[in-house]
Design brief:
Order of helices and strands: HHHHHHHHHHHHHH
Radius of gyration: 19 Å
Number of domains: 1
Structural class: mainly alpha
Strand content: under 5%
Largest sheet: none
Length: 295
């Protein structure tokens, strides 16, 4: 029952956080990195009192190394996602997450010479087939031209880059949880995101920091909602990883892809939803095959 609650929370909160991220990019010119900085800052306001009153815990150097890597990857990956949402539909970017399962196979193929099973190959083919449904295709346009146009979209490229980063982060998150606990890992993940994002802003985005801070109060409700959904998503992910293997967890999390398509229509009136929904379902099935039986 507890595991089911964590999984359900993760499935719903992930696309909801993307909704608020996209709304913020549509409503204002706040930089993606500043949005992530404020998200971690608001989460830290909640986490700091919990951290101060909880019993002392031993923090190994191994855990601190893992969680610092996670914070850097989280800030990088989430900034890329917010930037992607600025120039592409949520109902297209959501299904792309299914490619994470293909990315997870590549190190084994390239480094270890371990090739996917027939289930894995079937899963890859399903993801590729589903991809054609989420591409926008005008009448009489060749599929190859639609594919090239799809890849020319900067949002698509940014989303694939974010996917690689988040797939790597998932591995270190699991290690951080194993070296401590889900609660400790969550608290440090939230709080370390502030100095990581803040340092980058101070070095490369001082002007953006001043401009974005002035716009902050205009969108405070949206930012709070983003922080809540991001916190729920990350907490649910860590507590699920503590109970279930990462591979099986990620397979179940893929269901949120379908919600992303539905939210794209419900919140932003995006087009071609029936076609994209079919593609998302096919891609979810392919990802589940790869993650569960693929290697």
């Amino acid at each position: 029952m507890t595991l089911s609650l964590f999984i359900l929370t993760r499935i719903i909160s992930n696309p909801l956080s993307n909704v608020f991220q996209k709304k913020l990019t549509n409503l204002s010119t706040i930089s993606p990195l500043f949005i992530i900085f404020i998200t971690h800052f608001l989460l830290s306001l909640v986490c700091l009192p919990i951290f101060l009153i909880m019993p002392p815990v031993y923090l190994s150097g191994q855990f601190l190394g893992y969680i610092l890597i996670c914070a850097v990857l989280a800030v990088t990956g989430n900034t890329l996602i917010v930037a992607a949402l600025k120039s592409a539909d949520l109902s297209v970017l959501g299904p792309i997450n299914a490619y994470k399962s293909i990315v997870s196979l590549l190190p084994g193929i390239l480094i270890l010479g371990e090739f996917p099973t027939r289930f894995g190959i079937t899963g890859i083919l399903l993801i590729l087939a589903g991809s054609f449904f989420i591409m926008d295709k005008v009448p009489n346009q060749q599929q190859a031209d639609a594919f090239r146009q799809f890849w020319k979209n900067p949002g698509i490229r940014l989303r694939f880059a974010a996917l690689v980063v988040s797939a790597t982060e998932a591995i270190f998150l699991k290690k951080a949880v194993q070296a401590s606990s889900p609660l400790v890992a969550f608290l440090f993940w939230c709080m370390l995101g502030v100095p990581v994002a803040g340092l980058v802003l101070m070095v490369w985005g001082r002007q953006a920091l001043r401009d974005d801070a002035a716009r902050l109060l205009q969108h405070r409700v949206m930012l709070v909602l983003l922080a809540i959904t991001t916190g729920l998503m990350q907490a649910a992910t860590l507590f699920t990883f503590n109970i279930m293997q990462v591979g099986y967890s990620l397979a179940l999390f893929q269901t949120s892809t379908i919600l992303s398509v539905l939210f794209g229509y419900g919140f932003f009136q995006e087009k071609n939803i029936p076609r994209r929904l079919v593609g998302a379902i096919i891609m979810v099935a392919g990802a589940a095959l790869i993650i569960t039986f693929g290697s």
